[in-house]
Amino acid sequence: MCLWRAAGAQPFDTLSRAEPAARTGLGDQTVRRWLSIMREEGVVELVGSSPRSRDARYRRVRQGSLFSPS
């Protein structure tokens, strides 16, 4: 399950940590863990200075294609 899709967000929307938790029913700790994993994998990036900030937001990173055009 993609946390972004489950939260009903568009690909380049920014979300606070609370938004996916509220929209999916997942607990705050679960959402924090998944956002951390997604940051480590380069799927999302932090918008702001610290993930601990109340104003921290996240956005998906544009993913390149798996294959280069021939």
Detailed description of the structure:
This protein is an alpha+beta fold. The protein has a 3-stranded antiparallel sheet. The longest helix has 13 residues. The N and C termini lie far apart (31 Å). This is Helix-turn-helix domain-containing protein.
Instruction: Report how far apart the termini are.
Output: 31 Å
| Biggest β-sheet: strands ordered side by side in the sheet | 1-3-2
- The H-and-E topology, N to C, reads as HEHHEE
Biggest sheet statistics: 3 strands, antiparallel
CATH fold-level label: Arc Repressor Mutant, subunit A
Low-confidence stretches: none
According to CATH, what is the class? Mainly Alpha
Separate helix tally: 3
**Strand fraction:** 15-25%
Organism: Streptosporangium amethystogenes subsp. fukuiense
Protein name: Helix-turn-helix domain-containing protein
Question: What's the helix and strand layout?
Answer:
Elements: H1 3-6, E1 14-16, H2 18-24, H3 28-40, E2 44-47, E3 57-60
Antiparallel strand pairs: 1-3, 2-3
Give a quick rundown of the structure:
The chain is α+β, with helices and mostly antiparallel strands.
